[in-house]
């Protein structure tokens, strides 16, 4: 879960329903908006430019999304499940620094991986 500080919305990885949703904290609504479907998300982060980063444990990758995007851009992993330097095995939690470097807790490899921007 994260809070979009600009809009005061919650961005939530709804792992059990295979989606990422946005909930307004201001509107009092009881229904969220689906941002991304068909994803085994666990971790979510947002950078200073409001890109959303999501870890997908099914595809062993991390993607970056603009809030209106459905497919995103691959930023980490994406080379199948494994322990190589370009692979992940159950990526979970994420952190993005001010330079848009992405840190991923690579759960089943027992390591933290850093991917530099670009």
From TrEMBL:
NHL repeats lie at residues 82-118. GO terms for molecular function: zinc ion binding. InterPro entries: 6-blade_b-propeller_TolB-like, NHL_repeat, TRIM-NHL_E3_ligases. It comes from the Eukaryota. Keywords: Repeat. Transmembrane segments: none annotated. PROSITE patterns: NHL. It comes from Rotaria socialis. This is Uncharacterized protein.
């Amino acid at each position: 879960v994260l809070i979009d500080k600009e809009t005061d919305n919650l961005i939530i990885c709804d792992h059990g329903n295979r989606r990422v949703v946005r909930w307004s904290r201001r509107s009092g609504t009881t229904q969220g908006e689906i941002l991304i479907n068909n994803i085994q998300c666990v971790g979510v982060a947002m950078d200073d430019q409001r890109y959303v980063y999501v870890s997908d444990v099914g595809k062993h990758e991390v993607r970056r999304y603009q809030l209106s995007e459905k497919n995103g851009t691959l930023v980490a992993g994406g080379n199948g499940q494994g322990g190589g330097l370009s692979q992940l095995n159950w990526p979970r939690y994420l952190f993005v620094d001010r330079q848009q470097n992405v840190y991923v807790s690579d759960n089943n490899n027992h390591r933290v991986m850093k991917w530099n921007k670009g």
